[in-house]
Amino acid sequence: MRDVAIIGIGQTKVGEHWDTGLRHLALEAVQAAVKDAGVDHIDALYVGNMLSGELAGQEHLGALVADFSGMRGVEAFKVEAACASGAAALRLGYVAVAGSMADVVLVVGVEKMTDQMGPQATSALAMAADADYEAAQGLSFVTINALLMRRYMYEYGYKKEDFAPFTINAHANAMHNPYAMFHQRVDVKAYVNARMIADPINLMDSSPVADGAAAVVLAPSDWARRLGRKGARIIGSAVATDTVAVHDRHDPLVLEGAAISSYKAYEQADIGPEEIDFFELHDAFSIMAALSLEAAGFAQRGGGLRLALDGEIGIHGRLPVATMGGLKARGHPVGATGIYQAVEAVQQLRDQASENQVPNARIGMIQNIGGSGATVITHILERIE
Amino acid sequence: MRDVAIIGIGQTKVGEHWDTGLRHLALEAVQAAVKDAGVDHIDALYVGNMLSGELAGQEHLGALVADFSGMRGVEAFKVEAACASGAAALRLGYVAVAGSMADVVLVVGVEKMTDQMGPQATSALAMAADADYEAAQGLSFVTINALLMRRYMYEYGYKKEDFAPFTINAHANAMHNPYAMFHQRVDVKAYVNARMIADPINLMDSSPVADGAAAVVLAPSDWARRLGRKGARIIGSAVATDTVAVHDRHDPLVLEGAAISSYKAYEQADIGPEEIDFFELHDAFSIMAALSLEAAGFAQRGGGLRLALDGEIGIHGRLPVATMGGLKARGHPVGATGIYQAVEAVQQLRDQASENQVPNARIGMIQNIGGSGATVITHILERIE
User: What's the pLDDT at B385?
Assistant: First the structure.
């Protein structure tokens, strides 16, 4: 198995891109990543996307993005795993390069959601849940997470405002990320007073519907060294699934898929959670941030929130999370998010994170979650010195 | 690179399954394939599907099928490349096993289209075309193919009824395939008199909207030999893309993607077209059958139809095609079709094709086409003696 590195990164600003199309967004990220990598040829293109069919009437993004990016003819596919579609494409790119089936793979995540804001986006996102046994009962994605959050508060005795640190941290970090959607600080008062969406989830617990594209170029690590590229080696790559419907789980507050995915990645990297210098977690809702910290071994059951309340998740804390704004404040263009996480981790490991630089960041973990924990994809990245 | 074999196959009958769901169809194919392979464990599951979001409000089929098939936890994704989604999943499964990143991969193609017959299915299928530059102009998938067919007739001087042999052959072969959707013989009169859809394409030029699922189990070839499995080695696997919009091509009557994909597969297999004993082609429309025969090197430009008119495409002809009914008569549940082709090729190479057995079949080629040739995926399979 070959050692694989990310040798180039690219991203568009996350936001409401009403004046441009899906293929143009992808192109912008692709051009930046290819230029950054300094490659003149790629062997394959994997596109992570969840909603282009439902929201733009366009499937077949592999061929579409390949052609529009000037790579007509190249092997290309779309990969989908709900909100983990970006990391799914990254995982398959990793498999191809690690297994010596390709040398240079371009992975792009792209999503354009804001053309269809409101009910249509909510209904489209519900396709990540179980259509027959959840959505058909009137559950949307946010209401499923609201049930989980309420249960978490009940089981462990937390108050609503105890979740505020995740949001405050994400918005603080996004202030210095020019690609982030939001550049507004949030305090406890703003968090508590935000508009309610599905009690107890309010607007400040929820990542925003957004447009965006991000891309990475994968190649064997010895290429990266030979070309003198600073960047990141992928030292762990793992996927696990769980039931799509939350009611089928052994315990709704334990993300078993996230635990299995995390520990498979630790095992491959031959490290434990204590060696992770920062964690780009999947804070689609603040309850998901808490649950994923616990599943990944950074906190005991019910302790994910405690980590945040104790001030450990900031840039200078014990475990910085959402270092460039996370899903909450950078924005969550669903199929692109997993690639944004990879791009941001590489920025950290290259010392390119400016005011958000995690001191001495050597190993970072990124985790992309599809549905309410039904697909969990974890990658562990290490600095190339 | 490891040698990869298909060691198990499974399929459901193709048709209108109004009394069952997407996950149940997938399960039926998965159970058959896993039993046929005699494996008690799989490393990963790749699902080929195009339309579950649009037609069933359900994405996230990787996790959904994994859980429903009793494989909760396993690595799983959905792969999409329009009507080539099935072969795209097969290709990625091949990459994982050939590159030693997985030992046993289950690949399932599933599609459920008939719950939404009529305009909604036509509109969903148009997502394989270019949404901005084709569909937005009112072109559907069938009208794009109608333009190609008309041009073909004009350029080469063929009449409408010259296309009849493809349909007659497909329906004749489907008579003996219990999994096929149609069991009616078609003659020239029935072909010519069929209801017009988009002139010159009539109902007998078009593959039907259908439900179905098919599955294969991939493993290293030395396992197959050790277990004494008769089956098929994958000796060629190749993907090429082209423009999604037909008007962007150098020549609308030349499927460049199909030519590149075919010749890459021949090169890997170290054979030429003359060594192919049968060809499971992508006869979504009869014009596609003609164009793909030319692109794959079985006929000169404009000669694809001649091959059919000369009686060469029957079971005992020089190049049998659509040996179990093809897309036209077995049916075309789009994301499943590429896996049906693989299943049928293995039936031929195991001498399990009953009345449709191609004599002395040793090497078969399968080709799955997404859009009007924008993604073309070719696999060449060889008998395991």
Answer: 80
Q: What is chain B's alpha carbon radius of gyration, rounded to the nearest angstrom?
A: 19
In A, minimum Cα distance to B77 occurs at A81
In whole angstroms, give the CA distance from residue A185 to residue A169: 9
Q: Where does residue B233 rank: exposed (0-12), middle (13-18), buried (19+ CB within 10 A)?
A: buried
A134 pLDDT higher than 80: yes
Place of tokens 């969990």: A376
How distant is the alpha carbon of residue A18 from its chain centre? 23
Candidates B63, B88, B256; nearest CB to A241: B63
The pLDDT tens digits of the residues spanning A148-204 come to 999 999 999 999 999 999 999 999 999 999 999 999 999 999 999 999 999 999 999
The structural domains of chain B, ordered by start, are 4-117+209-227 (3.40.47.10), 130-206+236-383 (3.40.47.10)
What phi and psi values does residue A45 have, to the nearest 5 degrees?
-125, 125
Best to test chain A binding among B71, B241, B372 (most A CBs inside 10 Å):
B241
Residue B81: name the closest of B328, B377, B353, B379 by CA: B377
Q: What is the mean pLDDT of residues B105-126?
A: 89
Strand partners, A212: A111
Model confidence at A122, pLDDT cuts 50, 70, 90, reads confident
Residues near A373 by Cβ (< 8 Å), separated by ≥ 6? Answer: A242, A246, A255, A256, A257, A258, A288, A291, A295
| CB neighbour class for B227 (10 Å; exposed up to 12, middle 13-18, buried from 19) | middle
Q: Answer yes or no: B183 catalytic.
A: no
Whether chain B has a CB inside 8 Å of the CB on A138: the answer is no
Contacts with A135 from chain B: Cβ below 8 Å: 57
pTM over 0.80: yes
Side-chain-side CA neighbours of A38 within 13 Å: the count stands at 9
Please name the residue of chain B whose CA is at the shortest distance from the CA of residue A64: B244
**Can you tell me the ipTM of this complex?**
0.97
Among B47, B59, B246, most A C-beta atoms within 10 A, so best to mutate, is B59
Q: Which residue of B has its CA nearest to A131?
A: B58
Instruction: Collapse the DSSP code of B50 into the 3-class scheme (helix H, G, I; strand E, B; otherwise coil) and give the result.
Output: coil
State how far the Cα of A257 lies from the Cα of A280, in Å rounded to an integer: 17
CB A130 within 8 A of CB A356: no
A377 residue type, one letter: I
A321 to each of A174, A307, A344, how far by Cα in Å? 12, 11, 11
Q: Is the peptide bond before A200 cis (omega within 30 degrees of 0)?
A: yes
pLDDT digits (tens, 9 = 90+) for B258-289: 999 999 999 999 999 999 999 999 999 999 99
Residue type, A268: Q
Give the active site residue among B17, B83, B282, B379: B83
The residue behind tokens 């640190």 is A165
Backbone angles phi, psi at A340, to 5 degrees: -55, -40
First and final CA of chain A: distance in angstroms? 21
Q: Which residues pair with B75 in a beta bridge?
A: B44
